[in-house]
Amino acid sequence: MLPTERAIRTTPEGLLWEPSERRVRGVKGETTVVDSRHPVLVWEPQLPVPQYAFPREEVRTDLLRPARNPAVGTHTGTRIFYDLHAEGAVVENAAWTFPAADLAGHIAFAWFLRPDSGLDHWYEEEEEVFVHPRDPHKRVDALLSGRQVLVEIAGTTVAETVRPVLLFETSLPTRYYFPREDVRLDLFAPTDHGTACPYKGTAEYWSWHEEDGVPPNVLWSYPDPLPAVAAVKGLLAFYNEAVDITVDGERLERPHTPFSEGLRVR
Questions:
Q1: From 3.40.50.10860, 3.40.640.10, 2.170.150.40, 2.60.40.3880, which CATH number describes the 3-129 domain?
Q2: Which of 50, 68, 219, 254 has the fewest CB atoms inside 10 Å of its own CB, making it the most exposed?
Q3: What is the pLDDT of residues 67-124, one digit of tens each?
Q4: Per-residue model confidence (pLDDT) at position 116
């Protein structure tokens, strides 16, 4: 395949799609439902992340039945929904087809924003992938730095370091990761909140010990990050959207990001 043939294509329905050269597998219990060497990444207009669609011949279509209660309106122009029958269970609307002629003969599977996606595990090559497929047009780089970074909450200095790790992620502000000994962790309380990211791994969280208009879970860490960002292992980072950060003497403006709404004080 020539590089020019890998460009993102657009359908009349507003879908964006691009062939992928990764082998992708989806497993339910001990049953491999998808094993594809010709997957396609599809971006729907209302979703910020891609999804996978697979050639029908690389899907166990014998495990799919027309949906009893089709989830009409949940995907762009969806024509047919399928229930998954596998491992003695039925998962409703686990798969669907898009109406685009370009994607005829392909079946997509629920994944993003649905914890009970129908399949228990997804793999790109031999590496398990969580939450949603990774976007090939986004990067996440964790770089050691010698910048002086200071964080304040309600006028109190809660972190200060000259050995941060800077995490650069496409379309998001730079995140500043601090060694634990450079953070006043005694001013925070651990919570049972957790998130998962297909680029970084699973995070644990802390909340500010007082109210002060600070949203909960403002501080986080990746205790066992994915290899690509191993440099942030065990370090601590703050939401730029909710704290005051000064870098090399320059106070940063608080950015507005997709996380901003969720960080409103409850």
A1: 2.170.150.40
A2: 68
A3: 998 887 777 766 799 999 998 889 999 999 998 898 999 999 877 555 566 788 999 9
A4: 61
pLDDT computed for residue 115 by the predictor: 56
SS3 (DSSP) at 51? strand
Least Cα distance to 110 among 52, 180, 181, 170 occurs for: 52
Q: What is the phi/psi pair of residue 252, to 5°?
A: -85, 145
List pLDDT tens digits, range 23-64. Answer: 999 999 999 999 999 999 999 887 888 999 999 999 999 999
Q: What radius of gyration, in Å, describes the C-alpha atoms of the chain?
A: 21
153/262 Cα distance (integer angstroms):
18
For 157-165, the CB contacts below 8 A with 24+ separation are 157/184, 158/183, 158/184, 158/187, 158/188, 158/238, 158/243, 159/183, 159/184, 159/236, 159/238, 165/231, 165/232, 165/235
Domain 140-263 listed as CATH 3.40.50.720: no
Global pTM? 0.83
